[in-house]
Amino acid sequence: MSIPAKFRRVIEAGDPEWSPDKPMQAKILFGNHLGESLQIMTMTEFNAKMRRILDMPDSNPNKSKLRRLFMGYSDELTVDKDGRVVMPLAFRKKLGIVEGELKFMGQGDSFQIWKLENFEGEVDAPLDDWIEEQGADFDPMSLVE
After folding, report:
1. In Å, how far from its chain's centre is CA 36?
2. What are phi and psi of 30, to 5 degrees?
3. Do the Cβ atoms of 16 and 43 come closer than 8 Å?
4. Among 38, 69, 85, 101, which has the minimal tally of Cβ within 10 Å of its Cβ?
5. For residues 92 and 98, what is the distance between their CA atoms, to the nearest angstrom?
6. Whole-number CA gyration radius for the chain
7. CA distance 2 to 94
8. How far, CA to CA in Å, does 35 sit from each of 31, 52, 94?
9. 60-94: per-residue pLDDT in tens?
10. Global confidence as pTM
């Protein structure tokens, strides 16, 4: 699989150990909480999230669940200088593809990978419906404080 250039720039910027002579490193998350998508997270963002989880008090019952969710359902992702990655069969099965078109969706310091048809049904259509429900003069940024 080839990662589009704009997403490779995000991975580069979020990999503190990257240099032009080394492959880029990121984390790929694949837990059930992501539905039929995979999430690619920069090393910086993943480490920051893990730090927040590990800093939670041990008495918090969610700490072990979050550790398992983020540590247990993630793996290293190595991206070569041309933006290519080898996508393991298990991840392709989660997306529901062996071959076919993928959709990449930016999320700031991370991005999601979807099978195109699943993206259209689970992201595009529900967002379109939600925007339509808000009315003609709706400004999505009005929801941000």
Report:
1. 12
2. -140, 20
3. yes
4. 101
5. 6
6. 17
7. 18
8. 8, 23, 9
9. 999 999 999 999 999 999 998 888 888 877 788 88
10. 0.79
b/e per residue 62-84 (b: at least 16 CB within 10 A): eeeebeebbeeebeebebeeebe
- Tokens matching residue 39: 């999430």
Give the Cα separation of 59 and 57 in Å (integer).
5
What would the two tokens of residue 11 be?
């991975």
| pLDDT tens track for 2-47 | 888 888 999 999 999 999 889 999 999 988 888 889 999 999 999 9
Report which residue type is found at 53.
I
- As a dihedral over the C-alpha atoms of residue 48, residue 72, residue 5, residue 141, rounded to 10 degrees, the angle is -60
Residue with tokens 């550790």: 67
